[in-house]
Design brief:
2 copies of one chain form a homodimer. The first copy, chain A, has about 250 residues and is of the alpha/beta class. In chain A, about 40% of the residues lie in helices and about 20% in strands. In chain A, the strands form 3 sheets. The first copy, chain A, has a 4-stranded parallel beta sheet, with helices on both faces. A 4-stranded mixed beta sheet of chain A has the order 3-6-4-5, sandwiched between helices. A two-stranded antiparallel sheet of chain A has the order 9-10. The longest helix of chain A is centred in the middle third of the chain and has 14 residues. In chain A, about 55% of the residues are buried. At the A-B interface, α7 and α9 of A face α7 and α9 of B.
């Protein structure tokens, strides 16, 4: 039996090297778009609409009832928006039944760069196991796509990709050095249970820690707190039906 | 005292993210351009001229006395050239006093992409320690630039970058996740002394092993066999004067 292929793309600037046609692409933006989307949907958001710009976010917010506009620039809620990009801002008591319109720098951009995939889903530590189960059953080639930081390789997205490779390696054909490196990196560091300690020496952690977001980041790397798989359908991220049934 | 900056670029497609102005850029193409250039110069080649195409290689070969044209495409000596891209083809008895005109797919291309550096040198396991000494003393920012494989991240170039980061980290300011990842990867795997075993599960090793080049690759990852630093001067790679004195 021919296994489907699993590859890892370390930066949006390398996306053109990968064949995404008919593949399932996993968008990974651990700090923090992926994590916020996963948490909001698990906490009952109707859907999350990812948009590229603050302007678009404001416009869309006016036209959708019961919606929240959210997004940050330089660690602060962007001017004209209502909320930020922290998963902790969206508990059930606040977000249930609402539409979250979210603009982020890296994750959203990558999501719209992928043109011909069979499906786009969101991966984060918060949904690690259910995302892996979803991929194991999907029957498609898989590309784990790291949003990185302005096209620069980053550790937290790569470590998550490594965690997925580690869990799925028997089920896929893996001949991709990025996937191998991500897995070894995860096994050598985060795999030993000190993920957040390890990430304290990373560019993005240091950047966000300056805004006092240490607690946020610790939350974002906690596995399986929000076991839902966000799937892109008609430009909206919704909970996958399967994960709904499991819940 | 402000330390100079050390960064790692994992693919030529990411080079635009880095400021190479007035930096020393280390071109890394372990399998095998970097290794062959280092070996040939240590074995007495007058210089190595890296060129982009087979045609250019042939033309230049006609105009330079006592020169050798070399390059491979798909694991074989390219049509019209005399020799291949193996460090083992260039022992002292053969290459001493000659000019090696070399065309390679990935390393040469990257070398010509770097436009404004203070200096370009060649790094390989074969010259690991002297290259690190050179960088420690250079007083410039340093970019370790992996040639990769057709822009795809590869393990062997990254592991070498990791070895350099590991050796130099106290001497440079390092705030670059690629550098951190490369170092951790090196420490976790190759750092434990089984570099070639580790690389047997890598894309490039598998590709070259199909051409029977296992022995070549083992040679290429042996540290410090050829303690010279190739430096680009007027489009020619020559031995650094310092490494000459040391020899």
């Amino acid at each position: 039996m021919i296994k489907p292929r699993l590859e890892v793309c370390l930066s949006p600037a390398l996306l053109y090297l990968y064949d995404t046609k008919d593949a399932v692409v996993v968008i990974i933006d651990i700090f923090r778009a992926s994590s916020t989307i996963t948490a909001a949907l698990d906490n009952g958001a109707e859907c999350v609409i990812p948009v590229a710009s603050v302007g678009e976010c404001i416009e869309l917010g006016k036209s959708i009832k019961n919606s929240i506009t959210a997004g940050e620039r330089d660690g602060k809620v962007a001017e004209g928006l209502q909320h930020g990009n922290s998963p902790l801002e969206y508990p059930k008591s606040f977000i249930e039944g609402k539409t979250l319109i979210l603009t982020t720098t890296n994750g959203t951009r990558l999501l719209y760069m992928v043109k011909d995939a069979a499906e786009i889903i969101i991966g984060s530590f918060l949904n690690l196991d259910v995302a892996c189960e979803y991929l194991a059953k999907c029957g498609h080639n898989v590309l784990l796509a790291c949003a990185s930081w302005k096209d620069r390789f980053n550790l937290e997205d790569t470590l998550f990709a490594g965690a997925v490779v580690h869990k799925l390696e028997g089920k896929f054909d893996i001949n991709c050095d990025s996937a191998r490196a991500a897995k070894h990196l995860f096994m050598a560091t985060a795999g030993k249970g000190h993920l957040i300690e390890f990430l304290k020496d990373s560019s993005h952690y240091k950047r966000l820690a300056k805004f006092g977001l240490e607690h946020d980041m610790e939350y974002c790397v906690t596995p399986n707190l929000h076991p839902v798989v966000p799937v892109l359908k008609d430009k909206k991220l919704v909970k996958d039906g399967l994960s709904d049934q499991k819940a």
